[in-house]
Structures are given as structure tokens and as C-alpha cells.
Specification:
alpha+beta, Arc Repressor Mutant, subunit A, 6 strands, 178 residues
């Protein structure tokens, strides 16, 4: 009866090493896990890392992870921009007759993403509890965007109330002295 389990080829072991190394970041550990003795794991781990197929595998794996990374710089800036410039009137309307919340199914995605929390208070004897919508902080989003674009610097005075100052040149005219 033939052995139904084939032994792994050297190439398969090397690619398994690359996969395990990518996960753990530890060459000795990856080498041990593919069957290298603990005594020789460090030496073989270093050798395997220098192999072209391992280098290629690791580069491809990193590229794949980078492509599927959720929080890229562009996405973060896009989200901050939504929050910073979101218009509350697209989420609720108000006037003499009270506040009316827009139906969540009709909200454009850009406006829905600016909402941090929606809640409803406990029911009262005369009806449902009060609705509450909490939007993400426009001020915080504007600060972060401003910092990203180099608009702010730490205040030299360093007050607690105003830790940032606008780093734009001030133009004085006339006979003013600085």
C-alpha cells in the first residue's frame, strides 16, 4: 500500500517557511516549524530569508496586505473632510414646529458617516422617548486636517484653552510696530 501522504518538496517547505515568517516575523521559529532542528533553526532561517523565492513571496504578501488595509492615509483624510464639512441640515431640519430627523434610508452615505451615535430615551407616558443624534466633532476634524496640511503649530504661549495657533504669516500695514 502506497503512502497517501506525500512528503513536501524543498520548494514547498521554503514557501511554507516564507508564509510562517510573514505571520510571526521570526525566522528561527518559522524554520523550526517546517522541520529544521532547534540547533540549526537560526542559521537556516537566515539562509531562507535570502532566497529569491522567499523575498518575492514576502514582497507579494506585503503588497497584498497594503492593498487591503482599511485605514489608508487617503481614506482617513477623506473621512475627516466629510466630518469637518458635513452639513447638519442634511441630517435634521428644524424650525418653529420643532426638529425633524431625516430618514436614515434616504441619507447620502457622506452625511450618514458623520453621525457618531443615534439613541432614543426611555418611553414617556405620552409617547416615545426623545431621539438624540450625536455627530462627530467638526472642530476636532478641522484641527486634524489643519495639522495634516501644516496650518497649525504649537502655541508658544501654550495656553490650555488654545494649544494651537494658525501658522500663516500675518501682514501688517501702515505704521504699526511689531
Amino acid at each position: 500500500m502506497a503512502n497517501k501522504f506525500k512528503r513536501k518538496t524543498t520548494k514547498q517547505k521554503i514557501l511554507e517557511f516564507a508564509r510562517l515568517y510573514f505571520i510571526s516575523g521570526n525566522a528561527s521559529e518559522a524554520a523550526e516549524r517546517i522541520g529544521v532542528s532547534k540547533k540549526n533553526a537560526s542559521t537556516y532561517g537566515k539562509r531562507f530569508l535570502a532566497r529569491p523565492e522567499v523575498i518575492e513571496y514576502l514582497a507579494d504578501a506585503k503588497k497584498t496586505v497594503d492593498e487591503i488595509t482599511i485605514a489608508t492615509k487617503e481614506k482617513i483624510l477623506e473621512e475627516l473632510t466629510r466630518i469637518a464639512f458635513g452639513d447638519l441640515r442634511k441630517v435634521v431640519s428644524w424650525g418653529p414646529s420643532g426638529v425633524i430627523f431625516k430618514d436614515s434610508d434616504t441619507l447620502p452615505i457622506d452625511d450618514a458617516l458623520t453621525i457618531e451615535e443615534v439613541s432614543q430615551g426611555a418611553d414617556t407616558p405620552n409617547g416615545r422617548g426623545a431621539l438624540k443624534i450625536k455627530r462627530a466633532s467638526k472642530i476636532e476634524a478641522l484641527k486634524l486636517l489643519g495639522m495634516e496640511h501644516g496650518m497649525f503649530q504649537k502655541n508658544a504661549v501654550g495656553s490650555k484653552e488654545n494649544p494651537l495657533t494658525i501658522a500663516q504669516p500675518v501682514v501688517l500695514s501702515g505704521d504699526s510696530e511689531v
